[in-house]
Amino acid sequence: MDYSWDVSNKMTYNNRTGKYKFRKEYSFIINNVKGNKLNILDICGGSGRFALPLAANNNKVSVVDINNEAIDILKQHNNKITTYCVDFNEFETKLKYDLIIMIEAIGYFQNKDLVIKKTNDLLNPNGLFIFQITNPKSWRYTLRKLKKIIKRRTDYYEPSIEEVISKLQNNFFEIIEIDGFNWLPLSLSSNSIFVRFFEIIESLFKLNRILNQSPWLMICAKKVKSNL
Q1: Residue 118 in contact with residue 88, Cβ under 8 Å?
Q2: How many Cβ atoms sit within 10 Å of the Cβ of residue 72?
Q3: What domains can you pick out in the chain, each with its CATH number?
């Protein structure tokens, strides 16, 4: 299987760390969404890690992803989910959505303003945009740079939380909630039995509320006005 980000892959999501990440990300989505039967767009949704459970809760879900194999896998699981195999920058539709999610993906877009503006255009009034970012000011990111693990790439960069908030506000979004996670001192592919232990520590000491040092951040923003 060439597509590595499927839920069945033990090096990405089918391990203890992957399942931990899913619990944190999915619970954040559910906690910020009221009711069901929503029209939802999952940007860079891959093979349906979030689309499948959201669709199972009586929501109408659409997925945009550039990877053909990911879309094929998703269709095998649920062929009622609407799929668009296209770069989000090229995605066009007349539909409007109540909720748009983009998990572990915004860093791959060079023009963050364009992505956020387009998201605003696709949302219904008071619609929600929920997404995840990596915090470049966190202890973990700094440690990885010191160890020279991060490879320099021109097609990928991590915006700061201040930059993201500014872009959201400039595009008429109101911040509803920000929550941190991924304090686990383990690799993202780890299947260590200590994952659950570190998850409990993270919760016990409320590390998720230390936003300036949380390695990953979940953000929920509400559309308060349309772009002119």
Answers
A1: yes
A2: 13
A3: 16-223 (3.40.50.150)
